[in-house]
Every structure is written in structure tokens, then in C-alpha cells.
Design goal:
This protein is α+β, with helices and mostly antiparallel strands and 287 residues long. It is 25% helix and 42% strand. The radius of gyration is 22 Å and the shape is globular.
């Protein structure tokens, strides 16, 4: 492994919860050293050392969608390699997780369709080869045509994974809703090996989970939200919904506090965040 380079070295806890396809009973967390390179993950404790080749990791789940009943630690993630599953709780789980996704995905070649959907309209966009670039909180896709697609995790509104036809073959397709530089809602489709799509899905779903649509909005706030979603300029909202400017700005303040809107500049331009787009989309679907 002459081209191997270290990415992270920290203390933490870890446990194997599935071995050879069978759930392990009487789980016991081990304390030790967790090392990560661009080639492998090493779990070292007083009971020995376990090496996991990253090329054999098929899935990663973060601490929000793994089985909470299986662990006594507050922050962890799980990885599956073959028929084995491990839970790993580094001292700084967020920083280590970022390094792990970088090691698993950065530089990998996938197929990209962008924009597959733009402003709710399906586009006749073809599949192109793209290279994955992982940075802090951002999934970048460098496409062969020259464009560079950036998906900020905090901007991810909805994620869906399905089987579909890609260049004549049946493949796994990941559909990610986010916004472009102009703030327009777009969907980017990514396909590739089952392993790449699965790991990328677990990464972008972190943003989706953060933007769950659980806000309790009143009728006035919903009218303002739907007007924005329909493309009405923030400056035209008062006339559009029949409210005075002060009342609309009070609604803007409330929606910014709820992290449904992002304030672009004072006074007073706003843009829907992923959570706001999810709420508006749900309302439209129910009509």
C-alpha cells in the first residue's frame, strides 16, 4: 500500500453487532484507537486489531438512522463490510465521519444527470460521467461537459433512490433535490455502482433529515410560504397576499427563525430553504 496516506487517528469505542450475517448477542463496547487511511479502517484495542478494507465497505449509516437501541454512546455511525456490521464512536464523530466519506467517495467516477428536473419541470438532460468531490458539508460533481454541480447538505430538500434505466442498463439512481446558484429548485440524478450510490445516499440524507417538515405554521405564514414557492418576489408578497409590509416582514422573521427561509440581505430579500421547499411541496401534493 505504497500510496496509502493517513486521514484520521483518534480514540473512541467500537463494537461488532453483526458477524457473518448473524446478530451478536451480549454486545460489549471496546475502547481503543481508531485509525483511518484512504485504504483502510483500523480498530485497535487491548484485545487486538481489526482491519477493514474501505473497498469492501458497502454501506454507511450515521447515528441518526442507525438502531439507537444497540448503543449506549451518544454519537456513532455503522459500517457494513460483507456480512459484518460494526458500530464506531470516535471522540469527534462528525469530523471522523467527514474523513470517512471523503475516503470512500472522493475521486470516484459516477454518472450524473443535471438538471434532471428544474423548477418542477423535467428536463431532457442526458447522463454524463462525473467525478465526486467531497468537502466539508458539500458534495461536488465535476461533470465531463465542464459544469461543476455543488450540493450543500444543509440545502438538500428531498432524497429518493430507485431502480431505473441508465444508458440502457438497469441501475440504482439517486435523486437529490436542492437549489442552484439562482435559488431555483433542481433535482440532480446520480448513478453508478450499488456501493457508490448507497454510500452517497447515506451522506445526502443527513441533509434531508435536518430539513424535516415539522413546523407548525398558521394560515398567514403558509400563504406567504406558498407565494414564495410559486415564484412571487419577496418584494411583491405584501400586494400578492393582501397584507401590509410590516406584517409580511414579521412573517419573514418568524420563518427565518424556523429555518424555513434564508435571509439574503436586509431589507428584505429572502429565499426558501430546503425545509420550506419540503413544506410547500407537501401542501401541493395534498391538494
Amino acid at each position: 500500500m505504497s500510496d496509502e496516506r493517513a486521514l484520521a487517528d483518534t480514540q473512541g469505542r467500537f463494537v461488532q453487532v453483526v458477524k457473518s450475517g448473524r446478530k451478536v448477542n451480549d454486545l460489549e463496547w471496546l475502547s481503543g484507537r481508531i485509525l483511518l487511511s484512504n485504504k483502510r479502517l483500523v480498530l485497535a484495542s487491548n484485545e487486538g486489531k481489526r482491519q477493514i478494507a474501505l473497498a469492501k465497505v458497502s454501506t454507511v449509516k450515521n447515528r441518526k438512522n442507525a438502531n439507537q437501541a444497540m448503543t449506549a454512546v451518544s454519537g456513532y455511525f455503522s459500517i457494513q463490510t460483507g456480512s459484518d456490521v460494526f458500530l464506531i464512536a470516535p471522540a469527534d464523530v462528525d469530523a471522523f465521519e467527514e474523513h470517512l466519506y471523503t475516503a470512500l467517495l472522493d475521486g470516484e467516477v459516477v454518472l450524473v444527470k443535471h438538471p434532471a428536473v428544474e423548477g418542477g419541470v423535467v428536463r431532457d438532460t442526458g447522463w454524463e460521467k462525473g467525478r465526486v468531490n467531497i468537502e466539508s458539508g458539500v458534495v461536488g460533481l465535476g461533470v465531463a461537459s465542464g459544469q461543476f454541480v455543488e450540493i450543500e447538505l444543509v440545502d438538500v430538500g428531498a432524497v429518493d433512490a430507485r431502480e431505473g434505466s441508465v444508458r440502457g442498463d438497469e441501475r440504482r439512481i439517486l435523486e437529490v433535490e436542492h437549489t442552484d446558484e439562482e435559488g431555483t429548485s433542481v433535482q440532480t440524478y446520480v448513478s453508478g455502482t450499488t456501493r457508490h450510490v448507497s454510500i452517497l445516499e447515506s451522506l445526502v440524507r443527513q441533509g434531508e433529515l435536518q430539513n424535516a417538515t415539522d413546523a407548525d405554521l398558521d394560515q398567514t405564514e403558509m400563504e406567504v410560504l406558498m407565494a414564495l414557492y410559486s415564484g412571487v418576489s419577496p418584494f411583491e408578497i405584501p400586494e400578492f397576499v393582501g397584507m401590509d409590509v410590516e406584517a409580511v416582514e414579521a412573517v419573514f422573521d418568524r420563518l427565518v427563525e424556523e429555518e424555513i427561509l434564508r435571509e439574503k440581505r436586509v431589507r428584505r430579500d429572502v429565499r426558501l430553504k430546503a425545509r420550506g421547499r419540503n413544506i410547500a411541496s407537501d401542501v401541493i401534493s395534498d391538494q
